[in-house]
Design a protein that fits this description.
The protein has nine helices and 16 strands. It is of the alpha/beta class. The strands form two sheets. Strands 14-13-12-11-7-10-9-8-16 form a nine-stranded mixed sheet. Strands 3-2-1-4-5-6-15 form a seven-stranded mixed sheet, sandwiched between helices. Helix 4 links the parallel strand 5 and strand 6. The chain is globular.
C-alpha cells in the first residue's frame, strides 16, 4: 500500500515524543518550519530542557495521539522506538523516527511493515543526508565528476557524549556512516567486517574499525569512536579522477584532482599511480541539516518528491550494523 499524503499546503499538526538532547532541537526546528505546527509534546520524564512553552507535557504516546496530530517525531531512547512507532502506526499517525529505526533489524522490519501496511509516511532521521557537503558530494558523483568510484572512507571520532546510555558507538554513530555511504554510492552493502573495543568501562563498545564492500564493488572503511579528544567528521570518496573530501562539521567539500604533470624524478615517475593535481574547495549554501530534514518530511507528507530516508533503508542500515557486531564477535567477515 502506498503512503497517503496530506493535502498540499495544509498546516501539519505535529507531535513530538522525547524531549531529551535531540528532542529539544526537533521542537525548535518544527516550530521554525513553514507548514508545520507543534501542537503536542510528550515525555514521561518531563521537560528538563524547557521546550514546552505553552504546551502541556503529555505522559505517553497514547496521549500524544489523542491530541489529534497528523504526524509525529520520535526522539525517545532507541529501545523504545518499536513500542512508540507501532502505537503511532496503529493510531494512523505519519512518523519520523530518530535513527536507528529500532533496537534490532527484526524490530525495525516490524515497524517498516506496520507503516507500509497502514499506508502511512514512515521515515528515519539520518540527518547527515541533509549535510550540505554530503549532498553536494553525492550530486557530483552521480553526474560522473569523480569517474568510477573506487573507495569511500569515513572517520567519526570525538569525546564521549553523556546523552548516550542504551547503545554503543556502533548503533549510535557508525550507523550514520553506514547509511550515508550506501546513500552516496547508491548501492547497498554486500559484506562487512569489524573490530570493536571496550576502553571506558561501559557495557557497550566505544571504539570500532570496520571494512566492507558494497554491491557495486566499491570498498569502504569506517573508523568510529567516543574516546578521541579531537572531534572529526570526515567522508572521503576516491575515484578515477581524484578524491572528494567532505568535512561535515563545517559543511565544506573539497575536490583533490589527480594531476597530469609528469615527474622527472625517475623513482617517482616509475610508480604507476596518480600524482597530486589542483584542489578546489566549493562554495556551498549552508543550511541547518536538521531543518532541511524536517522540511523534507513536510514535503513527503504533502505528497511532494522529497529526500526522506525510508524505513526500508533504515532496516538495511541496521542489518549492516548487526552484521558488523557479529563480525567483531566471531572474527569473520559477514555477507549480507
Amino acid at each position: 500500500m502506498s503512503a497517503t499524503a496530506l493535502p498540499e499546503g495544509r498546516t501539519i499538526r505535529m507531535g513530538l515524543i522525547g524531549l531529551g538532547s535531540m528532542g529539544r532541537h526537533h521542537a525548535r526546528v518544527i516550530r521554525e518550519v513553514d507548514g508545520m505546527e507543534l501542537v503536542a509534546i510528550a515525555d514521561p520524564q518531563g521537560d528538563k530542557h524547557g521546550v514546552a512553552r505553552e504546551l502541556d507535557v503529555l505522559a505517553d504516546v497514547q496521549a500524544l495521539i489523542a491530541a489529534g496530530i497528523d504526524a509525529a517525531m520520535v526522539a525517545v531512547p532507541t529501545y523504545l522506538h518499536e513500542e512508540v512507532a507501532m502505537a503511532l502506526a496503529a493510531g494512523g499517525v505519519h512518523t519520523m523516527v530518530e535513527k536507528p529505526i529500532a533496537a534490532t533489524a527484526e524490530s525495525g522490519q516490524r515497524v517498516a511493515d506496520a507503516f507500509a501496511g497502514a499506508g502511512l509516511v514512515g521515515a528515519v532521521g539520518y540527518v547527515e543526508r541533509c549535510n550540505p557537503a554530503l549532498l553536494e558530494m553525492r550530486r557530483r558523483i552521480a553526474v560522473g565528476e569523480l569517474g568510477e568510484v573506487f573507495q569511500i572512507t569515513t572517520s567519526r571520532q570525538g569525546p564521549f557524549p553523556a546523552r548516550i546510555a542504551d547503545v554503543g558507538v556502533v548503533k549510535d554513530l557508525a550507523t550514520h556512516d553506514i547509511d550515508l555511504t550506501a546513500w552516496i554510492a547508491q548501492s547497498p552493502y554486500a559484506t562487512i567486517s569489524g573490530q570493536v573495543a571496550h576502553r571506558s568501562g561501559r557495557e557497550h563498545e566505544d571504539m570500532v574499525v570496520s571494512a566492507g564492500r558494497l554491491a557495486n564493488g566499491i570498498i569502504v572503511a569506517h573508523t568510529v569512536n567516543w574516546l578521541s579528544p579531537r572531534k572529526v567528521r570526515e567522508t572521503v570518496a576516491t575515484g578515477e579522477n581524484g578524491s572528494f573530501v567532505a568535512n561535515t562539521l563545517t559543511g565544506d567539500l573539497t575536490f583533490f584532482e589527480n594531476g597530469d604533470v609528469t615527474s622527472e624524478w625517475d623513482r617517482a615517475s616509475a610508480f604507476r599511480g596518480v600524482s597530486e593535481g589542483d584542489s578546489i574547495r566549493f562554495a556551498l549554501s549552508r543550511r541547518e541539516p536538521l531543518r532541511v530534514e524536517q522540511e523534507n518530511f513536510r514535503d513527503a507528507l504533502w505528497g511532494r518528491e522529497a529526500n526522506v530516508v525510508s524505513m526500508t533503508d533504515g532496516v538495511h542500515t541496521l542489518r549492516v550494523v548487526e552484521a558488523l557486531l557479529e563480525s567483531a564477535r566471531t572474527g569473520q567477515t559477514v555477507a549480507l
